[in-house]
Amino acid sequence: MGQWANVLLLAAILCSYAGSLQASQDKRMAAGTDVAQSEVPYQASFRLIEQDRHLGSGAILNVRFIITQASFIWKLMRTYPGQPLSELARIRLGQVELKSKIDDRFYTIYSHTYHPEFDFEAARNDVALVRTREYIDFNRFVQPIELLSGPIPEGSLVSYTDWGAEKDTAAQDDYKEKLQKLDARAISNDQCKELLSPWDLQDLVYDTRVCVYTNGTGSICTGNVGGPLVMIADGRAQLVGVMSYVYRACNSLVPGGFERLWNHHEWIAEESSVNYSDTNFGEMCRVVRNVAAQILMQNKETVRRRRAIRAAKVNSEA
């Protein structure tokens, strides 16, 4: 929250200065549960422009960047050779329904950047950044997510969200109508390799992977790509990884593999920085005010929950 406070303070100063000048963004999941949009305001859906079909997911990093799976963008570009990404897909934010509505907000893709050491064949360093042409308009249902800067403890509870079907081979009509959430535990890479050894897949667990395991309660099936893996720390959602590799689709006793984003924190921070030299400060100030209002509301909600927990504990001890 300290980083956001500094950003907001700087933006507020810039807003004030600007005001004075003017005066003078195929694998899915089984056994997931429906998600409310207020739970995942960072979720992004990449949509095929011509058919408005969901292609893959991502997460909002800031007012200009969405983070997703590099393999997803790479395969999409090769499925439609000769066409720029901006003419193939657009980004929808602020919704949990699979099908878009007439008043949904879409953003044009300006550019995309693969990790410099991305290897499609090996699915290594499988992360990409997608820049929007317009500033993302934050509100209650559209918010950036904080990027986790360090490793998570083994056994941490994590959640993965995406739209999904409950069978191995699925068409778009088989996908769930609402965004799905799958809860799991993060496991060590050694445990992940052990669980994958019966299928001789242990060599596919790289040091940039974080494995998650449900122990039979759910699995990733057909069509999930690029979706965010999130953990809650200090009452805030923090981005741990993006969907990268399904070792055995639709098998709830096999772990799933995500790109470990804390390994790429420096690259992500550098590549997703926003250049404000040509900024429309009137538009930016409106965005900043929305962000500030949402953070204030989230802080108040966090305080309310902590007070409720303390009150419940006191009552139980009385």
What descriptive keywords fit this protein?
318 residues, alpha+beta, Thrombin, subunit H, 6-stranded antiparallel β-barrel, globular, Trypsin_dom, innate immunity, Peptidase_S1_PA_chymotrypsin
Topology overview:
Blueprint: H1 2-23, E1 27-30, E2 33-34, E3 43-48, E4 53-60, E5 65-68, H2 70-79, H3 85-88, E6 89-93, E7 105-114, E8 128-132, E9 146-147, E10 157-162, E11 180-187, H4 189-196, E12 209-213, E13 219-222, E14 228-233, E15 236-246, E16 256-260, H5 265-271, H6 281-317
Parallel strand pairs: 9-15
Antiparallel strand pairs: 1-13, 2-11, 3-4, 3-6, 4-5, 5-8, 6-7, 7-8, 10-11, 10-14, 11-12, 12-16, 14-15, 15-16
Helix pairs in contact: 1-6
Family: Belongs to the peptidase S1 family. CLIP subfamily.
Protein name: Peptidase S1 domain-containing protein
Keywords: Disulfide bond, Glycoprotein, Immunity, Innate immunity, Secreted, Signal
